């Protein structure tokens, strides 16, 4: 990449290119964005965002544009952001859109089956959040929706095949809950075996969700455990452990249905290892 960065986002666009934006270098949030072209293996710089930000979210909308919202900036008057902006792949430019009701970082953003984006949880000056709101790309407006049951940050959110959203973990929680877009309400489901934050959640081809790794407040700190959520029963079952304990890693569902887990931190340093589930 052109810039070193951490706590950034990477979004696969409809044209196959990857948009990387924002992030952190040392203590400074970045305003820059760049595109990776898999056909050439090259990176090119694109238009800068309106706000420097890290620990934000980026969502590819049904119309192909990318919604970026929230995060941290280095401004002393606006450290946590409620601003949002859109990237247009046809022009390479950013335009601002309406701001969220709450400033937040370390939240989740999920594109629902109807095209709206559900943003929930996170952290700001007031602490951990249980608020949730919806972005409507057709109007550019945000609307509040039902609050999550527990305040949480550094959690995961997975859109299930039935259209509901599974949110789990964060803040060393083992609890999980479901958002039903048809009514705008949350319901608690069976809790995970382990408390965890900075874990990953992957929707598998059979409709179950694989949660792996993360950090816990229990003895050991870093986790190599993994578990599966079954939407048909609402229950969790443990599955095989990873070889390495890891947190802040990535998990990618491959075309063959396997999941590639790579990198992260083990508590003893940053990892180069990768493994397949």
The string of secondary-structure elements, in order, is EEEEEEEEEEEEEEEEEEEEEEEEEEE
Binned strand content: 35-45%
Strand order, biggest sheet? Answer: 1-2-5-6
Quaternary state, please?
A: single chain
Q: Helicity, in percent?
A: under 10%
Number of strands: 27
What is the average per-residue confidence, as pLDDT, rounded to a whole number?
A: 96
What structural class is derived from the secondary structure elements?
Answer: mainly beta
- Radius of gyration equals 18 Å
Helical segment tally?
0
Low-confidence parts: none
Task: Give a short account of the largest sheet.
Answer: 4 strands, antiparallel
- Separation of termini? 28 Å
Textual characterization of the structure:
With 277 residues, the chain is mainly β. The protein has strands at residues 9-12, 18-21, 24-25, 28-29, 33-37, 42-46, 57-60, 66-69, 84-88, 93-97, 108-111, 117-120, 123-124, 127-128, 132-136, 141-145, 156-159, 165-168, 176-180, 185-189, 200-203, 209-212, 226-230, 235-239, 250-253, 259-262, 274-276. It is globular, with a radius of gyration of 18 Å. It contains no helices and 27 strands.
